[in-house]
Amino acid sequence: MRLLCGLWLWLSLLKVLQAQTPTPPPLPPPMQSFQGNQFQGEWFVLGLAGNSFRPEHRALLNAFTATFELSDDGRFEVWNAMTRGQHCDTWSYVLIPAAQPGQFTVDHGVEPGADREETRVVDSNYTQFALMLSRRHTSRLAVLRISLLGSSLLPPGTLDQFICLGRAQGLSDDNIVFPDVTGWSPQASVC
Q1: Are the beta carbons of 34 and 101 closer than 8 angstroms?
Q2: What are phi and psi of 104, to 5 degrees?
Q3: Which residues form the Lipocalin/cytosolic fatty-acid binding domain (predicted)?
Q4: Cα-Cα-Cα-Cα dihedral of 185, 143, 60, 30, to 10°?
């Protein structure tokens, strides 16, 4: 009888442990003394990392731009443009300032009850690079995305900082994608 009770207890404990989902690591704080007026402008998206990215997604990612325009009320209107062949895919959203400078909630302009998304600028020198981290909460999971933004050549160590930020959030190298920018230049006539 004790053996049967022990087996039942062991199987119950195993089932409980399998049902638990790991707690995501805490998000790094937004950068101190964030200056929105210096951050605004056009950035090139040079790398993305996220828990929903897989190696097979690399072929789907083309180089694209993100343009941040600061409004008088502190919100950023963000427009993204990605060339695909001879046409342009665009999408936009609004970053609404949160309590801390450099931290925002994302308004995708969809119906009430949509997934909640938070984003923050983790680091930037305002002229060459920026690291942004976003977490969107769905009914089943938290979707993490880290963006490496640049305007020209990245300062030494920036790529390592991007990869280390991803690893600190539990991501592997398989969760990091870089668009192929070989021979790419923004085509104003397309986008």
Answers
A1: yes
A2: -145, 155
A3: 40-182
A4: 10
pTM, full prediction: 0.80
What are the boundaries of each domain within the chain? 35-177
Tell me the C-alpha distance between 110 and 7, whole Å: 50
The arrangement of secondary structure in 35-177, i.e. its CATH architecture, is Beta Barrel (2.40)
Whether 99 and 118 have beta carbons less than 8 Å apart is answered as no
Give DSSP secondary structure letters for the chain: -HHHHHHHHHHHHHHHHHH--PPPPPPPPPPTT--HHHH-EEEEEEEEEETT--GGGGGG-B-EEEEEEE-TTS-EEEEEEEEETTEEEEEEEEEEE-SSTTEEEEE-S--TTPPEEEEEEEEE-SSSEEEEEEEEE-SS-EEEEEEEEESSSPPTTHHHHHHHHHHHTT--GGGEE--B-TT----TTT-
Span 6-39, pLDDT tens digits: 444 444 444 444 444 456 677 788 888 999 999 9
Q: What distance in Å separates the CA atoms of residue 132 and residue 121, rounded to the nearest whole number?
A: 4
Cα gap 54→43, rounded to integer Å: 24
The number of residues making up the chain comes to: 191
End-to-end CA distance of the chain: 74
Provide the residue type at 61 as one letter: L
| Average pLDDT over the chain, rounded to an integer | 81
